Predict the structure of Electron transfer flavoprotein subunit alpha.
Amino acid sequence: MKKVLVLAEVRDGQLRNVSLEALTAAQALAEGGEIVAGVFGADAATHAVALGQHGASTVYTADHAALAQYTPDAYVQALTQLIELASPDAVVLGHTAIGRDIAPRVAARLGYGLVSDVTSVEAGPVFVRPIYAGKATQTRKFVDGTTFITIRPNNIAIGAADPSKTAVVVPVELDIKDLRTIVKDVVRKTSGKVDLSEAKVVISGGRGVKSAEGFQPLNDLAEVLGAAVGASRGACDADYCDYSMQIGQTGKVVTPDLYIACGISGAIQHLAGMSSSKVIVAINKDPEAPIFQVADYGIVGDLFEVLPLLTAEFKKVLV
Ligand code: FAD
């Protein structure tokens, strides 16, 4: 039986789904032991109910001015102190921008090993993670010492909430000092209606959209499906959209239930960011485009004709 610490993430006041997925992974790691969670920020305690119902027996909350906006300096100090306080056998974070940034820093600082970008936890425990841009999977196991993992969003199904379970809330005083960076302001580049890395449906545009305005039919379909809109690097390089939308090896990795690729050729670097999607639909006017090799459904056609038709049909059933 092990004690597992999950660092929960809050974004725009909402607990991120990946934090509940991390609690599910923690149950496999705890083997009947204790699961505790940590949350930073002014409204941290408001998330204790959800964290408790998903398995955390204790929720450590830390409110500190330096934690209001993410900085590696402050978060590394905070997580290190939380680990020293909770003394877990295993630590689980989401493989998010924050998790990817602090997990290796804290693991190195404490002398722990780290398995990052885990897509499933199997008996052992054995951790499964994609390698070579998703072309192969690797299984890894900790021989001894503290287990430290980050999990890829949208891969581990969230366990059912148990309303009878509650967590004890423990406010923690952190000693955060010697900060080298202070965030003064955050400017969002995307509308951020649906978070790309956690979206259940992603519609992406490539160079085939031909202009910034060419994203409009994708936005229209996204509105109807409640989807997030992404892009290939080709579209970003051509200045049709912001790099925050880029999916792929050097962009975001997404694993939605449905990925619709529009005017994207299917270069290996793009596939690295989306090939684990559960269902892939490709719309491309070139029947030889490599994207069709990974697609479950392919539509050979002009995206400017196909997308309005799809939007109109979905509107009939969904709106
Ligand atoms: P193209 O390859 O130009 O394809 C455009 C497609 O649109 C074509 O297949 C065409 O048939 C189709 N099309 C055109 N008009 C229409 C229409 N009206 N209707 C339907 N279809 C149409 N790329 C990424 O995406 N993500 C990454 O993270 C990434 N990282 C990289 C890292 C490195 C080190 C390198 C070298 C490259 C990386 N790339 C990445 C770039 C990648 O190799 C490709 O160049 C890029 O993905 C191509 O983008 P695209 O598919 O939009 O453009």
Remarks:
- The first strand starts at residue 4 and ends at 7.
- The pocket of flavin-adenine dinucleotide is lined by residues 206-208, 232-235, 246-251, 263-265, 267, 269-270, 273, 283-286, 289, 302-304 (CB under 6 Å).
- Residues 201-318 form a domain with the Rossmann fold fold (CATH 3.40.50.1220).
